[in-house]
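G., the chain you wanted modeled:
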Amino acid sequence: MKTHLFKSVAILGLTLVTSAFMGCGQSDNGGGGGTAVTVNQAGYTNYIGSCSNCTGINMGSPLLNTVTSQTSDGSAELSLQLFGNVSAGCMQPANKLVICASGASVLGGTLRVTNSNYFCGLPQGDYALRPISASQIYMTTLTGGQYEAVGPAGSVIRLSLMQGILYNQNGLDLNSTQNRISISASMQVGSGAGCGMLYTY
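Predicted structure as tokens:
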């Protein structure tokens, strides 16, 4: 039942998300995949201090070691880890605890910008992504939460997560490299200027 529900949620999410990025009046030009992005695992313990409501989250053991995502044309690629808490009485094995995740949860890792035009002129390169306020997770779907990505020359991208749907055609697994997340988030750059929406799959 849980597997069937998870697949239904994942398929619905993929259907609704356009898997394109439209920022600063740019339209999606289509395209393929990109190169792998290495997760920046440094400083996760410091995220607690920068996040307004993360103190109760277990940051010691990720629920997913690798979660990837990208825009349909490869203008942005993400390589992340997922942290959160597990509901009491969870009967899942250690590598499947994400199925029982509930409450506050955060993503952290690397956002790679390969097309600066889609980010309102910010430079290409790798941006370290950290939470500013926690998301909420239920049934492998994240909602809410504020994130900040700091990149070359101190460039800043701020993301307000609307929804993030975790999925894996073989089932979400702690160490799987096939874990993915479809994201819809509004963006601000620099001192707070609006920069459209980020849609990834």
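The helical segments are 2-16, 44-50.

Shout if anything looks off.
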